[in-house]
Structure formats: C-alpha cells, structure tokens
Amino acid sequence: MTEKVYLDSSLGFYGAGNIGYRWAVKVINAVSGRFVHVNTDCFFFLDLMDQHYYQNDFQGINTHFQTFQKILPRVEAVTVADFDQSYLLFKEYPNASPRLLLVGAIMKRLEIRKIVTTFSSGMEKFSFFERTNLMTVLNEMKLSRRVLEK
Amino acid sequence: MSPLLIDSNIPIIASEQIGEAWATVILNEVAKGNCPAFTSVLYCLEILESYWQQEKAFEGRVLYKNFKSLLDDQILPLTVEDFDLSESLFKRTPHLPPRDLIHSAVAIRHQMTDLFSIDGPTYTDIEEVRCVTLNELLRQLKLTGDYIDERN
Description:
The structure holds two protein chains of two kinds.
Chain A lengths: L4 E3 L2 H4 L4 H17 L3 E4 L1 H12 L3 H14 L3 E2 L3 H13 L5 H12 L4 E3 L13 E3 L1 H7 L10
Parallel strand pairs in A: 1-2, 1-4, 2-3, 4-5
Helix pairs in contact in A: 3-4, 5-6
Chain B lengths: L3 E3 L2 H6 L6 H11 L5 E4 H13 L3 H14 L4 E2 L3 H13 L5 H12 L4 E3 L13 E2 L2 H7 L5 H6 L1
C-alpha cells in the first residue's frame, strides 16, 4: 500500500487509560510499518500535552511524548503558509475548529486524502479528507483485529 | 533593543473588543519598525481558538490577518525540534503549562530571550527566557506617561 495517510492526535490519547494507550500505539506501529508515507504534524504533541495537562496527568505527558516521539515516522512542521491555507478552508467551513482546519490545510499541502482518527463528530461533512477508522485501516492492511490484542 | 516574542494575548488586548491603549501603543511601535518583534504559529492558533470559542471565528481571522501584517510575516514555524526542547524544559518545570514551555522553546531556539506577555509570572521559572515588563518596554521605546499609569 503506497497511499499517504495522516495520523490524527486523537490516536495519541484515545482512551486516556492504559488499554486505550496500548491499543493506539499498536495501531500506529502497524500503520507505520505498512504505509509508505505516514505523516502527522508537530501539533500532535501539542494536542497530547494539552490533553494530559488539563487532566492533571503530568506523568502521562512525559510517557506519551517519549513513546510517540520514537515511533512517529514523520512529523511535519507547521508554518504560516498552513494558516493561510486554513483560511481558505475556513471560508468553506466557518464553524469548524481552527485546529481541524489546520489539519485540513496540512493534509492539502502534503497531498494526503486519508486521515486515521478516532475523532468522529461531524468529520464526514468535510470534503478535504476522507476519514477512515482503525478497523478499516487494519482491514486494508489485511491485519486481523488480533494485532490490537498482542 | 532585543527582539521580542509577542504573546497572543497582546493583540487580543489591543483588539477593538478590549482595546487597551498600552497594548495598541506597543503594537504601533512594532508596526513602525521601532520594536523588532516576532510571534509563532502557536500564538496564531491561540488567537483563532480564543475567538472561535467565543463563537467569533471571523473576528479571530481578521485579528490574525492584521497581526500577521503588522509583524511583516515574522511568524516563526513550529517544528518537532521545538517540541523536543519543550520536553527538556518540562522535565525541569513540570508544573508549567505545556504551551508556555513550547513558547519558551521557540524563543530559545531562535536565540531570543525576551517575551512580551501578560502571563509574565509563568516564565520566571525558565532561566533562559524572561518576560519584559510594560514599564521596561516603554522605557526602551522612550515612551512614558499615561500608558504606564493605565497598566499599573
């Protein structure tokens, strides 16, 4: 499979507990090994740190940061050009969050259509990416559900 | 004078909705080229998020555009190296908000020591950076008077 995919930060903190955490890491590992290009942006870490900080989980910041730092295959810088591109998306989707529009802008820059995310609310209305869920990714990679349980 | 890294709260305070004169005066000095200044894409995101959360997304976009224009596009990107450095800062100061650690990391990586923010006390725990006070900045810009009184 040579298609590029974008990893949303929701994979990083999905579930927030130990089970969710191991599950997300396994999926990222699996995806990273199978796709030629896997990208996220450096705000992945910001989302991760914000989430843990607001839960007063300081140890979680450190643990997750170091784990994902090691396994994420390609982390894109965010530039002002991405903000300018996100403004074009804003005109089309004025109610979408700035962060989501920025993800869309970065995906456009990287010419990525597919996003792997556990975040679902309202994403289907955006034409700039095709949301795919974890099971779909695993099916496409011909990986069984058991990869999550190893 | 040393270049400043300007926090998102300064343009927000200077905006029409809050409109505090001291913040406008400082940003005018930046616009006139008297005060070398930068911001970062994270501060830009904070502007947009702040207004979006108040259901004023369009106003946020306008403020971002004006702020960007005022800084003559001196908006620093955020890279994974900034996050690597912020992680080192986190180990020393785990009580600080992650975003403030990232702002500090951006400043350090671009050889800047001075930040201008209303969140001054946050940065006192990070020895590589400091938050300049309004009084100090006004003195450096040779401005005095009402602005200091208003802020203090």
